[in-house]
Amino acid sequence: MKKKMVFRFLIISSAILFMVSSAWAGWVSAPSMQEFHGNLAGAIDKDGLIYAIGGRNDAYNTLIIDGKVERFDEHTGLWSYTTPLNTPRAYLGAATDLQRKIYAVGGYISSGTVVNTVERFDPSTDTWTSVANMNIARAAAGVVTDQLGRIYAIGGSGSGGVLSSVERYDPSLDQWDILTANLPGPRQNGGAALGADGAIYVIGGHDGSSWLNSVLKYSSALDTWTEVAPISLARNVAASVTGPDGYIYAISGYNGSYTNIVERYDCITNSWSNVSPLLNARNNSGVAVTPSGYIYVFGGDIGYYRTDTVEKLYVPEPATLLLLGLGGLVLRRKV
């Protein structure tokens, strides 16, 4: 009986080890979008469909802003067009509320003007409608949804320069309010993600004069920002997201040159570590996490040109058992 139990344990352990090692095999190419999208935003709906929203499809040093929206179904492997934005915009942010409606927040329009307008997409009707404007026009802001479904627009670039202000949208009230707690300093092009601990994190970016490696943590209960462990490479963060494993991923970016570095943050230990790099160094990309456990990074800039390419990384589920050795198994889960 004991031999059978040990045998079964070894089989299960081997399967788990194979699954985990496969998860960290690295980024792989996924089906390309229909066309180039740089400076876009990414989001996901209730059915697990990925949206690539707006952006630029121009060559370097021109400003052709596109309102097209593409939608990806990973089960069919196909990208298709859906309803475009009412107002074409680039350097926008995107977020999904608790009803799985998608918001396109701020950005630059074709005249080069930064805007405070916001649109909401209802996947059930494939329609975009205008909602309440932000108090401040901003582009290249960190945009993220908290656990209560409220949407934050953090920093960014405004008509007068780089911003330190933060505002929050309540979908139930259709209202934006400026938070009392500004960022400690101005910041644009920083990544934003909701941590497994319920806090909001803003990662890297640029303050108007230099690239940043600092990371800030926001507590909504205290309405305070605190600095936590920095990323290893100061940069604009091309995309950031919390994976199914509970880690926050800061993906590639730009600091005078393009990078493919990917770092992940552990909220429990307050530490960053490097993981598999992207296949292509890129900036200003869209990102989304699917129910199947993949992180998708799509579009952006590769060199000085927009791209239609897509990469994906499989990461373990929050409750994946990790084999640490024949001595036993440890369960890592979200807190």
Low-confidence stretches: 1-23, 320-335
- Overall CATH architecture: 6 Propeller
* CATH fold field value: Neuraminidase
- Residue-averaged pLDDT: 89
The major beta sheet can be summarized as: 4 strands, antiparallel
**Order of strands side by side in the largest beta sheet?**
1-28-25-24
Q: What portion of the residues fall into strands of 2 or more residues? A: 35-45%
**Overall tally of structural domains:** 1
The tally of helices reads 1
Distance between the termini: 37 Å
Q: Over the alpha carbons, how many angstroms does the gyration radius reach?
A: 20 Å
CATH superfamily: Kelch-type beta propeller
User: How would the global form be characterised?
Assistant: globular
Give the number of DSSP strands: 30
CATH class: Mainly Beta
Structure classification: mainly beta
Helix content: under 10%
Explain the overall architecture.
The chain has 335 residues and is mainly β. It has a single domain, classed as 6 Propeller (Neuraminidase). It has 1 helix and 30 strands. It has a 4-stranded antiparallel beta sheet, with no helix packed on it. It has a 4-stranded antiparallel beta sheet with strand order 2-3-4-5, with no helix packed on it. A 4-stranded antiparallel beta sheet has the order 6-7-8-9, with no helix packed on it. The longest helix has 22 residues, at 2-23. The radius of gyration is 20 Å and the shape is globular. 46% of the residues are buried.
